[in-house]
Records
---
Amino acid sequence: MTRQSFVVDTSASPHALLRPLPLQGVTIRDRFWAPRIATNTQVTLPSQYAHCEETERIANFRRAAGTEAGDFVGLFFNDSDVYKWLEAVGWNDAISDSPGLSIIRDKVVADIVAAQRTDGYLNSYFTKERSDDRWTNFDLHEMYCAGHFFQAAIAIYRTSGARTALDAACKMADHIDATFGPASDGKRPITDGHPEVELALVELYRVTKEQRYLTLADFMVSVRGANQLGNQKFDNLYYQDHKPYRDLHDVVGHAVRMLYLAAGATDLWLETGEPALKAAIDAQWQNLTQKRMYVSGGVGSRWHGEAIGDDYELPNPTAYTETCAAIASVMWNWRLLQGTGDAKYADLMEWTLYNGVMPGLSVSGNEYFYQNPLENDGTHRRSAWFGCACCPPNVARLLAQLGSYVASVDSQSLWIHTYMQGDIDAAGSGLDAAVSVTTEYPWDNTVRITVTRGGQWTLRARVPSWASGATVTVGGVRQNAEPNTYVALRRAWQVGDEVVLVFPMQPRLIMAHPSVINNNGRVAVARGPLLYCIEQVDQSMPVASLRIDPRTQWAEATGPVALGAHTLLHAKGYSTSTPEDALYAPWRHDAGQPVRLTLVPYHLWANRAAGAMTVWIPLA
Amino acid sequence: MTRQSFVVDTSASPHALLRPLPLQGVTIRDRFWAPRIATNTQVTLPSQYAHCEETERIANFRRAAGTEAGDFVGLFFNDSDVYKWLEAVGWNDAISDSPGLSIIRDKVVADIVAAQRTDGYLNSYFTKERSDDRWTNFDLHEMYCAGHFFQAAIAIYRTSGARTALDAACKMADHIDATFGPASDGKRPITDGHPEVELALVELYRVTKEQRYLTLADFMVSVRGANQLGNQKFDNLYYQDHKPYRDLHDVVGHAVRMLYLAAGATDLWLETGEPALKAAIDAQWQNLTQKRMYVSGGVGSRWHGEAIGDDYELPNPTAYTETCAAIASVMWNWRLLQGTGDAKYADLMEWTLYNGVMPGLSVSGNEYFYQNPLENDGTHRRSAWFGCACCPPNVARLLAQLGSYVASVDSQSLWIHTYMQGDIDAAGSGLDAAVSVTTEYPWDNTVRITVTRGGQWTLRARVPSWASGATVTVGGVRQNAEPNTYVALRRAWQVGDEVVLVFPMQPRLIMAHPSVINNNGRVAVARGPLLYCIEQVDQSMPVASLRIDPRTQWAEATGPVALGAHTLLHAKGYSTSTPEDALYAPWRHDAGQPVRLTLVPYHLWANRAAGAMTVWIPLA
C-alpha cells in the first residue's frame, strides 16, 4: 500500500464533521497551481535551502551540537525558518520525486537532532552561549520554534516514515510537558509569547495518540490572560494575553500570533468539542470577517506591532497584511471547515489563498513579500530573503501541502472545497469514491467533475459565495445552485457520470463598509475567486489619477504569458489631473480624460516593472 | 511719543522691499480675531503660566540659580516653552492693558536671568546636575532654547523698554559667538540640531546693530551639510544637515526645524541679499507648495521624525501637521513677503493662519492640538497641555503679534496683506497714512477701506488668490481686480475717501494633484480664505459614509454662536452603506441615500462633541 500522508489529520477527531484526504489522494494538473507547485519544488525549496545555509541558520544547529566552530548567528527564532522549510520539504516528498531534496532533508534533520540536549531541550539559540537563559523569557519564541519543529517532524514522518525527527520532537514535547503546566501539578504556569505550539501539540497528539500533548495544548490555550508572560516588550493585548482565551471575542494584537492561536484553539476544539471554546472562536471569526479583514483576505492593519487594527481600521498603503497572517488564516479556516462543513470557511480559505497568500510569492518562485499593501507607489518590491524570514518557508510549506485543502470526506460524501483540474481519490480516507476534475478555474466559469470510481455516495461540491446564478447539471438536468453552500448530489454513481458546475464570473465591483473611511468613494474589482488591481505598467496615465466608471462595459483578455495564463480585465475609466501639475486646483466637472483601464489579478502585481498599484479604485 | 514695537523689524534691512508696521499701528476690532486675541490675553496666557509653574518649568530656572531646592524636572528643552510664553506676554503688552501679566513677566525674567552663568551661558537643564555636559550634544536644543530666549528678550525690550532680558540675551549670544564659529577663527564649527537661533540672531542684530550676531547667524546657516552635528538620533536629512543649505532645493526632514531654518535663512537674505541663498529658499518654497503641503497649509506628513514626507506623500488621517510647523510657515512667508511684496506669500500666510494654525487652538483658548490631521475618527482631541509643550505658547505668541502681519509700508505705499476690521496707522513706520477697515471678512465678501489720514500715497490692497471676479471700487468707479496681486491705487487721498473691495466667496471645490493618491476621487471645500470640513456632530449619517454631489446648490447659514460668528455651508450629498453592515458587499448603483451635508470651517472642528471629521470628501 502506498503511504497516505495527512497534513492536518482530523481522521479520528471526534468533533470533526469532515475527514481529510491524504496528499496522495489529490493530483493537481491545472494551469494555475500545478506550475506554482512545480516551481516550489524546483526553485523555491532549493533556493531557500541555500539562504538557510548562507545565513548560517543551519550552521547554528551544528554549532549548538559542537560539530562546527562559532557562535549563534542571526535572530533568536531563526531555527523556525529551517523547521518550516523542512516541513515544506517533508510534504513535498509526497507529491514529487525530488531525491536531491530528500538527501538534504535527512542531512538537516541530522544536524538538528544532534543539537538536542539530553533532557530533550532543542533550540540552537539557547544551547551554547545562552544555555543559562533558556526558558527565562517567553517572548523569545522557544515554544514557537518547538511547534515548528513538531510540524516538520510530523510531515517527515507522515510522508517518509522516518522517525528520527519525530522521536526528537516527542523528546522536546516531553521536556516541555514536564516543565510547564498548571502550578497545581508542580509545573511552571507560563504563557507563551508567540502561539504556534498549540496546533503543533494537537497534531503531535494525533500522530502519537499521547493524551499528554493534547492536555498540554489545552493548558497553553487556557493559561492566557493570567499575566504569566513576563519580560514582554509590548502590552498584553499584543500577545492575546489580556484576557482568558474563552473570553476573547475579537481578533487583536499581533496578527500572526492571533491567527495561529485561533487555529490551535480550533484544533483543540476538534478534539474536545468544548462549547465555550467554540463560542469564542466563532466570535473571533465574526469580528475578523466583519470588521478587521482586508478585502484581499489579508490581516494586519499596522506596521507597529505587526498588529490587527481596530474595527474598520484598514488603511491601504500602510497595510501590514503579512503573508504569514494570510497563511495562518487559511490554516484556521481549514480547521473550522473540517469541524463544521460550512461553505463560508472554504470560501474564505480559497479567497485568502488566491488573494492574501499568493501576492506574497513572485511568479519566479524566489522572491517574497513580507507585507502585502493594497496600494503602493511602486517602491514596495519583493525580496529574495529577509532577516526575519518567516514568510518564505511558510509559503513553501503551504504550496507543498496544497492538495490536502482541495477535498474532504465524511462517511457518505466526497466534499470538494476548491476547484483545480486534476484527480481526487478518496480511497485513502476510507470512502470508495474518485473523480476527475476538468476546469480552467479560477479563469473560467465551468467545472466538469467526472466520476472515475462509482458507488453509492454523495458528491458535495462547493458553490462560491460570489457565484450568483450558479448552476449544476447532472444527468442532463440543470438546476440552480445556491451560492456559499455545497450542492449535495447523492446517487449510485457510475464511472463516467458527469457533473457540470457553472459559476458566473462576470467582473464585479465591491464596496466597503462606509466606516472603512479610506475606501469610501472607491471600489475593488473581482472576477470569480480573484481580486484585481490596476498596476502602472498597464496604464496610459498615472495610477494615482485613475478612476473607474462603475457602469463600464467589461472586456476580458489574456494577459502576458510570462506571468502564467491569466485573464486581464479592461474597463472604462477616466484620468484626472490638475492644471500645470498644481498641488491643489479648483475641481472641474470635465476633469476626466477617458482612458481604458487594464486590471490584473492582485496576486500578480509587482512581477513586472515597478510602479504604482491600487486595489481600491476611485469611482468616476 | 508712544512706543513703536516691531515684531520682525525689517525697517532697516537693505533687501526688504517692505517695512513693517509696529504692533501699535494696527487695531483689530473684528468678530473673528478680536475675540481670539482677547481670549489669548485673558485665558491662554494666564493658564499657560499656570502650566509652566505646575510642571516646574519656571522652577527649573530657580533651581539652576540655586534659589530653590531640587533638580531639573521635565524635558531638556522645557526652557523654550517659558521663553515662548514670555515672548507672547511681551507682545501682548503692546496691544492690551494687563498689569497682572506684566508683573508675572518681570518675575519670570528675574528667575531666568538669575540662572545665567557668569560666562553668559543660560540653560536650566545644563546648569546644575549636568553642567559638565553643556555644549556636548547639539541635538539637545541648547541653541534652540537660546534663540527663543533672544526672541522673548527682544519682545519685552521692544514693548516695555526693559533691558534686563535683552542684556542677558546679548551675554548669551556673546558667549555663543565666542565659542562657535569657523574653525579658522579658532572656534568650534558645530551644526545645531534644531534651527531657531538663526532668525533670533538676525533679530538680535537688528535690535542691537551688533554685526557679530548677523555673522554668527550666517555661520549657523552655512555650516550645515558638513556633518558637524554628532550625537544625533536621526539621519542627517532629518536635521537638514545632509547638504549645504544653499544646495537644499526641497523641504525635508523634521518639519519645524526645516521651516524655522528657512525663516532664519530668509532673515539672513533680507540683510545680505545673497542670490545663492535666495535661490535655495525659492526652490524650497516651490517644493513645499507644489509637492509637500497639506491643503490646510499644514506641513509634516509623518509621525515618525515629525517629518515632511516625500513629494505628494500627504495622507490625511496620519497627517502630523504640527501646529508649530504651520506657525513656522507663517513666519517664513512673512519674511518672504517683506522681501518681495509678492502677493503669493501673503496669500499662503493668511491661508495657513486660518487653516493651518487656528485648528491648533480651541475656541475656549485653553486646549491645543499638537497634530492637525485632515481626517479623524473622533479620537483626536485637544489637550490642555503637553509634555512636549512647544505648540501652546507658539500659538499664543503668534496671536499676540498678529497685528504686525496685517500691513506693511514702503516709502510710497501702504500695503494691506489681510483684512480684519479695525484701524491701520502707518505713522510709526514713517508713512503718513492711515485707514480704517470695515468688513466681516473672512465671512463676508466686502471690504471697505476708508482713508482716515490723507496724502499722496499708494494704497496696495491684496486680492486673494481664490477671489476670481474680484472688483475694486474707488471714487464710484468699479474695476476688476486680478487675483493673487495687490491692486495699486495711487492718488492724493482725502480723509473719508473709500475703497470697496469685493472678493466673491461662493463655496468652491478643490481637487488635489492625482499623485496625492489618497485624495483621488475626493474634493475639499473652501469658501473665501477658509477651508471647510464635515464633522460628525452636524451630520445625520456617519461621516465615513458621506459623499458630496459636486454639482450641489450651496446654502449658507450662520453657525452656533458658541463657536463665534461663523458661516456654515450646506450641500447635497449621499450616504452610502453596505447591506447588513457587511464589511464588503457588491457595489450598487443606488447605494446613495440623499442627505444634506453640513460643512464647518476646519479650524473650528473638535470644539463640540467628539466625532469623525474629514476635509477631503469623496465625490458622489
---
Amino acid sequence: MADVMSNLEPDDRVALLEELPGHLTQRVLNSMSSEDQVEVKKLLGYPEESIGRLMTTNYVRIKKDWTVERSLEHIRQYGHSAETVNVIYVVDEQERLIDDLRINQFILSNPTQLIQELMDHQFTALSAFEDQEEAVRMFSKYDRIALPVVDSDGILVGIVTVDDIIDVAEEETTEDMQLMAGMNALERVYSETSIFMMVRKRIGWLLILFLGQMLTVTAMAAYNSMLAAAAMLAFFIPMIISSGGNSGSQAATLIIRALSTDDITLIDWKRVFTRELLSGAILGVMVGLMGFGITYAWIELQPGDIGLSFMQALTVGCSLFGVILFGNLSGSMLPFIMSKVGLDPAVTSAPFVATLVDVTGIIIYFSIAMFLLRGLIS
Amino acid sequence: MADVMSNLEPDDRVALLEELPGHLTQRVLNSMSSEDQVEVKKLLGYPEESIGRLMTTNYVRIKKDWTVERSLEHIRQYGHSAETVNVIYVVDEQERLIDDLRINQFILSNPTQLIQELMDHQFTALSAFEDQEEAVRMFSKYDRIALPVVDSDGILVGIVTVDDIIDVAEEETTEDMQLMAGMNALERVYSETSIFMMVRKRIGWLLILFLGQMLTVTAMAAYNSMLAAAAMLAFFIPMIISSGGNSGSQAATLIIRALSTDDITLIDWKRVFTRELLSGAILGVMVGLMGFGITYAWIELQPGDIGLSFMQALTVGCSLFGVILFGNLSGSMLPFIMSKVGLDPAVTSAPFVATLVDVTGIIIYFSIAMFLLRGLIS
C-alpha cells in the first residue's frame, strides 16, 4: 500500500483516501513521510490551526478482546514507528475510540488478562476540527503525555503529544504579546519575517492609533483659550496622560493574562471592577500626592513667580488621581468587553488603552484646571 | 525506614538525611508524602525557583548488569508509585546516572538481553541547583517527556516531567508580560493577589515612570516662549509622542519575545539594528505622510485662517517620522542593553520606552518647529 501511494501525486492520494474507510485512511497516512502527511492533512480539509493539522497518525491501537500478551506483541511489532507507546488506544470494530491505557498498565498486569479487564472506559479525546488552543487547554488541565484525536463519528484519527503542545503554546503566547503591543501577530518568528511583512503587520494599528490620537488634537484645541492664557498648562499634559496610560497598561496586561490562563473568567468582571476601582484609587492617591508635591516644588523653582504654584500643582495632583483611576478601570474592563464582542482580549493593547486614556486625560485635566484655576488665569 | 522517618519532625529528618549517602537520601525522600518532600527539599538547600524544588523523586532506576526481564520485574514492583515509567534510568554502583532508556526499548527487546546492551551512554540531565528556566529551555530543545536531575557529583537525585514544565513556562511568561507592562511580577496569580500586594507591585514603576515624565515637563518648559506665541503647537504634542511610543512598544515586544524564545541572541543586535532602522524609516514615512495630510486638512477646517497650515502640518509630519524612527530604534535596542547589563530584557516595558520617547519626541518636535516655523510665529 505504501508503495502504491508513494507513486501517486498528493492530489491523487487524497482522491484515493477519500474513498477509503476512516481507519484505512489512517493506515495509509501512517505509511507516508511526514512531509507528505502535512500536505495530505491540509487537503483532507482540517482547517489551519486545527488539531487535525497538529496530530500525528503514528500511534498504537488495540482491540478490547485481546490479551495483554497479544497486545504487547502487537506493540513490539508496530511500536517502533509510533510517536509514543506510553499510551495505547483501544478501538472497537468500527475503529471508534473506546479507551486509552497507559503502558504502565500492561507492564504491571498479568500477561493472560484481557484488555477489557483493564479498561475503565474513561478517556479524554480532542476533536480533529477544533482549534489547537483547545488542545493546549486540555493538556494544561489533564497533565497528559499524549491525547487521542477523534473525528465527528468518534473514530480515532490521530494523537497529539505534549512536546508539540509546548511549541503551540509558545507560538500562541507570542501572538498574544504581539497583539498586546498594538500590532497584528506575525505568521513566522521575528528572524524569518521580511521587513516588508513586518511593516504590513505593524502599520495598520499604527495608523488606527494615529487617527485615535487626532482626538487628542481636537480635545486640546477645544481648550485653546486656556492654553493661550497660560502656556504652563501645556507643560504637564504629557506627564498626566502618560501616567494614566501606564496604569492602564498594567491593568490591561494583568487581566488579559489572567483571562488567557483561566485564572479568571468573563463572569468575574464585577469582582475585577471592584478590585481595580479600589487599587486604582489607592495608586491614584499615591501618585497624585507625589505629583502635587513635585509639581509645586518644580513651579516654585522656575524663575519668575507667577503666583499659581499651589493651584496649578493641585490641578496636576487631582488630574493624576483621575487619569490613573480611569486608566485602571478602562485597562481592566476593555479585555472583558473585547471578549464579550467576540474579539481576542489581547486586542486591548497597551497602546490602545493609552490612546483612550490620552483623550480622556486631556478632558479630565482641563476640566479640573477650568474649575480650580478659573479667575486665576485671564 | 519510612516508618522511622515519619515519626520524626522535618528538622530531625533533614539532620538524618544529611548523614546519609546520596542514594539513601533519595530512598528516604521517596518514602515520604509529597508535602513532606516539599518541606525537606527546601531544607536540603535547593534554592527557590531551582530545578531541585521542581523535581520528583518518584522514578524507576535500574543497573546495567540486569536483564530486560529482571528490569521489567523491577518496574512492575516499583513502577506503581513512579511519576512515569516512560523513561527508566540506569545508574552505577555509586548511584551516578549513566544512561536513560525509554520504556519502548524494554518492550521491544528480548527479555534475556542485558541492559548494558541497550545502552548508548547518551543522555541529557538537568542540574538540581540550576534555575527552572533552564529546564524549560532543555525540554523545548529536546522534546522529552521527562529529564533526569543530577547533583554536582552526577548522582541521580530526581526527575522532572514535562507536565510540570508547562506550568513553569506559563508562570514565566506571565512574569515576562507583567514586567513588559511596567510593573513587578506578581508572586501568585491575579485572583489570589491581595489589593495591597497588587498596589505594592505596581506603585514602584508608576512612580519611577512619573519621575521620568517630569523630564517632559522640563522639556516643554524650555520651549515656553514658542508655546506662548503659538498655543496651537501644543495641540499636536500628545499625538506625536504617543505615535513614537506605539512604534517603540511594538519593537520592544518583538525583540523581547524573540530573545526569550531563542529566535535571536545578543550577538544579533547589529542585524536587528539595521532591520529596525529600515522598517522604522518605512513606518515613519507612512505615518508621517498621513500625519501631514490629516493635520493640514484639520488646520484648514478650523475657524479663522492663521496662514500656518502648510508649515505646521509639515512640522507634524516630519516630527512623526522622527519619533517613529527613534521609538523603533530605542524599543529594539533597549532589550539588548538591558540584557547586556544583566537585567531581564522584559524590563524594557512599553511604558519605559514610551517615557523615553515622550521626552525625546518633545525635543524632536520643538526642534523641527523652531527650524520650520522660525519667523512665522512671533
